[in-house]
Amino acid sequence: MDANRNRLVPDEHVICNSSGVCTFHLTFDVEPHPGLPTDLIIRLEIAKDKLKAVARMQGLARRQAPNIVLETLEVGTVDDAQGRQLGYSITPFLAGTVCLEDIWNEMEKSN
User: Fold this and answer.
1) pLDDT band for position 70 (cuts 50, 70, 90)
2) Domain region containing 8
């Protein structure tokens, strides 16, 4: 693989993968698209309409707490290799943070 191609292929880390949901963190060396950050969270779901509702709720929450709730950069649908339509969302990943899925089992029940 040449050096330019390697810069465009992201490093990925699967955060959650189940029969209905896959969430992963992508890190690019360069902006994947003008204006997009190089660290992204991508969520794919079989229930394609659910993510649109979640993005709307996240937008409302962001109005109240813009420093805490991240912006949803994009939400839409895509067809997988089997022809199924999946919902997807793209949000920024904040460096120096962890996803709740990564530490959920380590949390005390009182939290």
Assistant:
1) confident
2) 3-96
Sequence-ordered list of residues with C-beta below 8 angstroms from that of 83, at least 6 positions apart, any chain = none
Please report the pLDDT score of residue 8 as a whole number.
Answer: 45
Q: How far apart are CA 47 and CA 89, in angstroms?
A: 12
What is the residue whose two structure tokens read 């029940």? Answer: 109
- Say which residues have a Cβ less than 8 Å from residue 3's Cβ, sequence separation at least 6: none
Q: What is the mean pLDDT of residues 41-53?
A: 85
Is 8 domain-assigned? yes
Q: What one-character DSSP code corresponds to residue 56?
A: H
Q: Are 51 and 87 in contact (CB under 8 A)?
A: yes
